[in-house]
Amino acid sequence: MVWGRMTVYDPRFIRRIEGTMDQHLYKEILREDLYETIEEYEMDITRVIFQHDGDPKHTAKSERKWLNEQPFDVLD
Fold first, then answer.
1. Of 44, 62, 59, the residue nearest 8 (C-alpha)
2. Checking DSSP bridges between strand 49-50 and strand 14-16, what pairing results, if any?
3. Residues 6 or more apart from 48 whose CB is under 8 A from it?
4. Residue 50 and residue 73: Cα distance in Å, rounded?
5. pLDDT over threshold 80, residue 70
6. Contact at 8 Å (CB) between 38 and 49?
7. Hey, which residues does 74 pair with through a beta bridge?
8. Predicted TM-score of the model (pTM)
9. pLDDT of residue 11
10. Which residues have C-beta within 8 Å of that of residue 44, sequence separation ≥ 6?
């Protein structure tokens, strides 16, 4: 399995996932790779709009809580 990112700049990052991704691994990826992307492109984090699909691991209570605590917007 792979996880990728897409920005207004380019869709060039892909992370290989060993095994099954669950909500905990997904949150780890967001903490590391999402913030790394924001820093790499020197984005204003308050202007970032994050989008993900409705997969259950993306909408778990712990994920929603974490995302709501971030300074960027999350697209419904």
1. 44
2. unpaired
3. 38, 72, 73
4. 6
5. yes
6. no
7. 50
8. 0.74
9. 66
10. none
- pLDDT at residue 5 in the model: 74
3-class secondary structure per residue, the chain: CEEECCCCCCCCCEEECCCCCCHHHHHHHHHHHHHHHHHHCCCCHHHCEECCCCCCCCCCHHHHHHHHCCCCEECC
**In this predicted model, what pLDDT tens digit does every residue of 5-55 receive, in sequence order?**
778 877 667 778 888 888 888 888 888 888 888 898 899 999 999 888 878
* Kind of pairing between the strands at 49-50 and 73-74: parallel
5: closest CA among 42, 66, 52, 57? 52
The answer to whether the CB of 48 falls within 8 A of the CB of 38 is yes
